[in-house]
Fold:
Amino acid sequence: MLDLGDGPGVIDWQRFGQGPLELDAGMFLATVWRLGLDHEALAGEATCALRALLEG
Structure:
């Protein structure tokens, strides 16, 4: 569950698992990074999510 500020959001996990783990990780990173760019108020949260994934 993600807090999008004006309501909840969810990740559609059915779109993941379509190939190698590296592909899924790349898609997740790109999606979260883009969310941070498109919504300035969420940039900090996006950075935290990216850092958490990259640091394991």
